[in-house]
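Hey, can you fold this one?
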Amino acid sequence: METNELKSTYTPPEATEPTEENTPDLPEEESPMPEDALPETDGELPAAEDPLSAADADAEGLLILYDEEGKLDLSELSEETLAELREALPDLRIDLFPLWIGLGVLLGILLGAAAMVLTRMLFRRKKSAKAEPVSAPAAYSSTEDPVLSQTAPLTVQVSKLHEQGARSSQQDSFAVSVDQTASKGTLAVVCDGMGGLKDGDKVSQTAVSAVLNGFLELDGVPDRILLGLLARANRAVNHLLGPTGRRSSGTTMVAGILKDDLFSYLSVGDSRISLLRDGELTQLNREHIFYHELAIDAINDQRSFREVWDDSRRGALTSFIGMGELKYIDVPPRALSVRRGDKLVLMTDGVYNALTEEELKDALLLPTGEDTAALGAMIAEKHYAQQDNYTAVVLTIS
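Sure. Predicted structure:
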């Protein structure tokens, strides 16, 4: 504990009997020491030493000399000097002030000061918080706020592209669920009637109608609903073609249900479902084409890789609606978790075969409506003589 009180260097006079003449009068508000007892200085007081750090400090406590009005720290006085003080100044009392009490007082003062500082800081902070508006972190926009993304429901915007290309008829079909099915989520389905085969347009339309009508009737979780919709579509097309017409025509299908923040999907054939997230385009499903079987044969040394690339059948479908019993379907093990800013794209091969990956991505990065318009413009600018029908449905999550 630091002290700024003067150390006494008082030397008592020769012992005499105290009388009224030789007993000094002490002013009420002045030091009990006579002026001639103060050390001679050049106008500056000597620096006080911490009595607790002195080598000869009394281990039991601090010695305090005090009267009714003031007190002096005389902890460094010798026993002889103290004895002389008792004889010379009988009106004063000299007590031993315990060290633990002094330390307790010091600790109380320090804690009180700390409490005052803390209270003042909290008051200023509270006052500042009331006065200044709180702004969102610069890294987030109002639509990207992390708290908002966890509480506000997701919404979906739909844009579409549906063109005939260079073909004589439009054999692509698609549908998106209307608002009355919002409690079940949003359904999107795209079918590509097999070009070159008869009634490709009717087959794709039949499949889409079966899916849309079934969605209005079926209840349950989206994954199971989708399997039921595929079964209905396959039965409807097989019935349309009849026992002898199977494999004479058919259609691909990609379908998905977006409910809350989950997207469930499945596919048959070579139409695609892709996800645009953070500027990257990712294909979600696997195409059912003969190339995959040829590649497996080459890996197993049953044919050469040159034969794989030269085989004209490598793009032929190995599974499609209308072949009777389906050979393959593509279903993920779990639904895809989506977030704001994602785009889900369902498209036929007339779209992804006409454009590069970068062209697809550049178009899809545009706002809703502009994205599909850009896709159509890019394909039209290619002027492909054999341009297939091309259809795309884009679901933008916001």
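The two ends are 65 Å apart (CA to CA). Let me know if you want another pass with a different chain boundary.
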